[in-house]
């Protein structure tokens, strides 16, 4: 406290009103300190990059990555312009044919141009959210059930402990073979590659949600359980009014762990199986081996990390809205 007062006096901050000093303190903590950390990281990265020579040239620094990101943005815009021109030509052609023959059935063929970096991001996000949603639909109800029943927990716990550590590298070949055997259609609703990635993500991110939900439900205060018994609440009402509100912090802890795992697993699965997405983009650039490849791979890695951060922050924001325990959603 004395050091803080001395610091304020020496810097002239003591003359400012207390609310202004408090806002300045919050600004320094939340903006200046993180920016300082980022600047130090970029400086260390730039210095290290100048001293690393690879078979594809010098290791890319921050400036090279920014340049490659701009190049990827330009490629995406160029591809979108090609797509718009493609559809416009079809509409003009159909209009001419309809003018000559009113019975002509106009057709619009889909654009099949190259998928850009941002198309791959969209594909990965759709896949990871579908896999995560499927895992949540399975894990949360099942976690509540085994959390409420000690007998059921004892029965399934050995299976969970065996399946939980299995790597996505092991799940992927099995998923691919099962999907290929069962999903046979001349006109598939979704591509097999999408199902392979989505199911692999589901199998790998299922367990943190399941275990945390079960632990959260099993840890409900006995007082709350007694209240439910006194009121003679039906089972579903007991779950809705007592179990779910009390277990929300633990459920969201599991969901935050699962979304991070889902994102990491998806990138690895896309790389291994050559399924569309950011993982395939990284692998294709690695195989390409051009002078720009390393910069593009590093750009993709940073974008992958940034999206993972946003996914976690998004889940944390939802938790703050629905959870009664603000301390569990503090970070």
TrEMBL record:
UniProt entry keywords in alphabetical sequence: Cell membrane, Membrane, Transmembrane, Transmembrane helix, Transport
Keyword Transport belongs to the record: yes
Pfam families per UniProt: BPD_transp_1
Ranges that cross the membrane: 31-48, 125-148, 169-186, 198-221, 242-273, 293-311
Residues annotated as domain ABC transmembrane type-1: 121-315
GO biological process, one term: transmembrane transport
Domain of life of the native organism: Bacteria
CDD domains hit by this protein: TM_PBP2
Subcellular location: Cell membrane
InterPro entries in the cross-refs: MetI-like, MetI-like_sf
Principal place of residence: membrane
Membrane topology label: Multi-pass membrane protein
Listed GO CC annotations: plasma membrane
Family classification: Belongs to the binding-protein-dependent transport system permease family.
The protein's name: ABC transporter permease
Species for this entry: Marinihelvus fidelis
């Amino acid at each position: 406290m004395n050091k803080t007062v001395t610091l304020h006096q020496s810097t002239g901050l003591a003359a400012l009103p207390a609310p202004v000093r408090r806002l300045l303190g919050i600004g320094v903590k939340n903006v200046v300190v993180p920016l300082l950390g980022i600047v130090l990281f970029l400086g260390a990265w730039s210095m290290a990059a100048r001293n690393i020579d690879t078979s594809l040239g010098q290791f890319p620094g921050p400036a090279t990555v920014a340049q490659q990101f701009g190049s990827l943005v330009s490629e995406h815009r160029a591809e979108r312009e090609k797509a718009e021109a493609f559809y416009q030509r079809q509409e003009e052609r159909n209009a001419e044919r309809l003018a000559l023959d009113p019975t002509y059935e106009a057709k619009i063929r889909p654009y099949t141009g190259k998928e850009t970096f941002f198309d791959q991001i969209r594909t990965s996000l759709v896949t990871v959210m579908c896999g995560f949603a499927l895992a949540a639909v399975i894990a949360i109800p099942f976690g509540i059930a085994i959390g409420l029943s000690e007998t059921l927990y004892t029965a399934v716990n050995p299976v969970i402990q065996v399946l939980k550590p299995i790597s996505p590298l092991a799940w992927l070949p099995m998923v691919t073979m099962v999907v290929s055997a069962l999903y046979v259609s001349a006109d598939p609703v979704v591509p097999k590659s999408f199902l392979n990635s989505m199911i692999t993500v589901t199998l790998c991110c299922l367990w943190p949600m399941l275990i945390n939900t079960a632990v959260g439900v099993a840890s409900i205060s006995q007082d709350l359980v007694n209240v439910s018994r006194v009121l003679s609440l039906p089972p579903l009402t007991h779950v809705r009014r007592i179990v779910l509100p009390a277990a929300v912090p633990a459920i969201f802890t599991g969901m935050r762990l699962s979304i991070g795992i889902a994102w990491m697993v998806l990138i690895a699965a896309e790389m291994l199986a050559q399924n569309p997405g950011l993982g395939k983009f990284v692998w294709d650039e690695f195989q390409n081996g051009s002078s720009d490849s390393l910069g593009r791979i590093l750009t993709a890695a940073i974008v992958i990390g940034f999206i993972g951060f946003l996914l976690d922050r998004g889940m944390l924001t939802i938790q703050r809205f629905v959870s009664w325990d603000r301390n569990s959603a503090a970070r």
